Fold this sequence. Notes:
Blueprint: E1 9-10, H1 11-17, H2 23-31, E2 35-37, E3 40-41, E4 48-49, E5 55-57, E6 60-61, E7 70-75, E8 104-105, E9 114-120, H3 123-130, E10 138-145, H4 150-158, E11 161-162, E12 165-166, E13 171-177, E14 181-188, H5 195-202, E15 207-215, E16 218-219, E17 228-230, H6 233-242
Parallel strand pairs: 9-15
Antiparallel strand pairs: 1-4, 2-3, 2-5, 5-6, 7-9, 7-17, 8-9, 10-14, 10-15, 11-12, 13-14, 15-16
Helix pairs in contact: 1-2
Amino acid sequence: MTQEKQGGTRLQKYLALCGVASRRRAEEMILDGLVQVNGITVREMGVKVLPEDEVRVRGDLIRPEEEKRYILYYKPVGEMCTVTDPEGRATVMDRFRDFPVRLYPVGRLDYDSEGLLLLTNDGDFAAFLTHPRHGVEKGYIARVSMELTLEEAHALRSGVMLDGRRTAPAKVRLLRKDAFSTDILITIREGRNRQIRRMVEQVGHQVVRLKRVRYGQVELGTLQRGEWRDLTPQEVASFRAHG
Length: 243
């Protein structure tokens, strides 16, 4: 596959424009040999495509999607944030099988967590939100086992060690507590794997329930489990203004 075409769009960007994946994930798909251009499998970066080129992913022909959609979804406990699951578990995409455009989740929300999840077919938007450099805030209500002390809450705010690195400062507000559990509102800017659960474990507690209630300036609001709505243009703009 030559890279001599004048103009054109880089293949990984083209895949993002088609709503296939974020640019970062598109690069991985290219390296894994999942993408063909005009019948030839592409495995290197830098290849450009023109409008008349035929691009396929896993054999399926793809085209840029004109309409960009930005969805706020209340993910229930018991759904995977993947397109498919090898173990046959329910995924968030089961709710959107007949949607007019192909959506993908922005980031992850654990199988046993619930709350606000964004889905879109705008790969650049998804890449922007999930890039660590932008540090978009995400707020969660966590119910933790037993009574969380003020000292332990301060430790969460200051950061704890995970995988040899201290977590970035978090915002922690106590909402309710008794001898058996404590509810906190915790806001973080990172997105490490199962981060809040692991942070809470580091201070001697377990997360009993975890619900994401805010992403950037967008809140879950009155949506019920399994419901969704489009983001307003103002909400989409609020994310872009963040950067």
